[in-house]
Write a structure and sequence with these properties.
The complex is a heterodimer. Chain A is mostly helical. Helices cover 77% and strands 0% of the residues of chain A. Chain A has one domain: 3 helical TM bundles of succinate and fumarate reductases (Up-down Bundle), CATH 1.20.1300. Chain A is built from four helices and no strands. Chain B folds into two domains: 116 residues, Beta-grasp domain (Ubiquitin-like (UB roll)), CATH 3.10.20; 132 residues, Fumarate Reductase Iron-sulfur Protein, Chain B, domain 2, CATH 1.10.1060. Chain B is globular, with a radius of gyration of 21 Å. Classes of the chains: A mainly alpha, B alpha/beta.
């Protein structure tokens, strides 16, 4: 029998989602969203300095419902990526590897991210 | 490139039910290399009783009474040999230390994830062992021990190895790591995976070893060590309660501060 005939055992299909891996992949996704959002933000900064027409178009977009969804994704990604980034920094110093602490800080940043975003969107700016 | 789907020959199909219902339902991954068929999920029913307490007991009972062709690795049945590591209800663990009482519903058993399957629940660990071999898992010392004596180590130095030497090389951690799934089997250079890196740190942390710098240098490339993104699935999977993620972080720290 040839070695490369061997089937590959199931992986993503069967592995139970772990809080550890879910938070990790979310960190990467929010990082991608933040990367893409820098184009929008720098375009807005550019328009503020040089192009009033473009600024009006962008401002209108940001006040539209679709624009608000964009901005929500950006604030959400920023808070999550920032808090989880702090968690990663602490790990890089060699602390917090106890699995209990990993779960604890994981849940903590989920709660913090949600509450910060609820605060920003429903209390601070009262946009809705 | 990350391959999220299974290759064509690996797609899992529905198999057959081997006995009448009664007791706990076991859905088990089957693959027979002698047939030209895709892997299948077969169903067995086993009643839990005094001598069937652990998942491994149930597998042995299936092999004894229902289907003798069911293939799996086992040896010590008490969590010290690391042979019966498999994926039980979505999490890698040792079948011999996983109690049936801890599983409320059906029991789904797969081989260790993202590994070539030899037969049923037996994965091919050749590549994992090759990676383990690449870290030279033995003492490299320039001095010789005193005649008729061991290499003496203080209790404090010895305690640095606690939580490292307990590893039984079951590869539950490595095969739970998504990064190891995507980077563990590359053509040129592999990500070594948590199990091998924990062992690498066991020799780096050993005060009797004289080749710490060489060991650190060997790990210092983009693949071997740094494909660890601190996902931490390894630590949550380890059936021995060890912390491979912490060991990897310590290696990263040592590499960063190593001046040679």
């Amino acid at each position: 029998m040839k070695n490369n005939d061997r089937p590959l055992s199931p992986h993503l299909q069967i592995y139970k989602p772990q809080i550890t891996s879910i938070l990790s992949i979310s960190h990467r996704f929010t990082g991608i969203i933040l990367y893409l959002s820098t184009f929008l933000i720098s375009l807005w900064l550019f328009s503020t300095a040089f192009n009033n027409n473009l600024k009006i178009i962008l401002d209108n977009f940001f006040y539209s419902n679709l624009g608000k969804i964009f901005l929500f994704f950006i604030t959400f990604s920023f808070t999550y990526h920032f808090l989880n980034g702090l968690r990663h920094l602490i790990w890089d110093f060699g602390y917090g590897f106890n699995i209990k602490n990993v779960y604890l800080t994981g849940f903590l940043i989920i709660i913090l991210t949600l509450s910060i975003n609820v605060y920003i969107w429903f209390f601070k700016w009262s946009i809705f | 490139m990350v391959q999220l789907h299974l290759p064509k020959n690996s797609k899992v199909e529905r198999g057959k039910t081997h006995n009448k219902s009664g007791g706990k339902k076991f859905n088990i991954y089957r693959f027979d290399p002698e047939k030209n068929e895709n892997p299948k999920i077969d169903t067995f029913y086993i009643e839990k009783n005094k001598s069937i307490q652990m998942v491994l007991d149930a597998l042995i009972a299936i092999k004894d009474d229902i289907d003798a062709s069911l293939t799996f690795r086992k040896s010590c049945r008490e969590g010290i040999c690391g042979s019966c590591s498999m994926n039980i209800n979505g999490v890698n663990t040792l079948a011999c230390t996983k109690s049936l009482d801890d599983i409320p519903g059906d029991v789904n058993i797969y081989p260790l994830p993202h590994m070539p399957v030899i037969k049923d629940l037996v994965p091919d660990l050749k590549n994992a062992y090759k990676q383990y071999n690449s870290i030279s898992p033995w003492l490299k010392s320039k001095s010789k021990p005193k005649i008729n004596s061991e290499r003496i180590q203080s209790q404090k130095d010895r305690s640095k190895l606690d939580g490292l030497i307990e590893c039984i090389m079951c590869f539950c951690c490595s095969t739970s790591c998504p990064s190891y799934w995507w980077n563990g089997d590359k053509n040129k250079k592999d990500y070594l995976g948590p199990a091998t890196l924990l062992s690498a740190y066991r020799w780096i942390a050993d005060t009797r070893d004289d080749e710490t710098n060489e060991r650190l240098k060997k790990l210092n490339d983009s693949m071997s060590l740094y494909r660890c993104h601190t996902i931490m699935n390894c630590t949550s999977a380890c059936p021995k309660g060890l912390n491979p993620a912490k060991a990897i972080a310590e290696i990263k720290k040592k590499v960063a501060f190593n001046k040679n």
